Amino acid sequence: MENKPIRILGIAGSLRRGLRNSMGWHCACCAQLITSVSEGWVEWLASEDDHGATVLSGLQLVHRESCRYDLRKVFRSGRSVVEGLSLERFVGPDGLILLLSLLAAGELSTAEVIELAKRVQIPGYELARNLIGQQNLPQVLRPSLGHGCYLQSEIAELIRPAMTDPSWRERRDSNPRPPA
Hints:
Largest sheet: 3 strands, antiparallel
Strand order of the largest sheet: 4-3-5
Strand content: 15-25%
Number of strands: 5
Order of helices and strands: HEEEEHEHHHHHH
Distance between the termini: 20 Å
Number of domains: 2
Shape: globular
């Protein structure tokens, strides 16, 4: 039997409704889903080291209105200021080049920028991450490219059981490490 690829972006209506609780981006603050691009905000902390050089840290994707860094708290605790942009700026081709420019500048953690790029640029990655759990992804399926970089066929393999087997979520919830 031939395995046909799943159209991640074109999930059928009934399947999409069935996966509704996993569609969107997890907020780094409240862990609830950000269900539309307009609701998201990407932010980070900016400070200076002892020599006056800029230090950026704490890259996170959060709800635009309710879950952002507490400006006073981060300034008092680390003399940092909060910088950020709407999630809309990070999606699509211009979003990809913005993410690449952040990597090229080398001021933010490479691992954090790459993870954000996968979450907002790679179709199906965030859904697989939401369904399986970020920490479980490498245990469930090792990416052939390594470094947590999944091909579309691998993402489809991760998502397929959730889309086609109604009892998958129950089995997943009762088994913390689903079989590979």
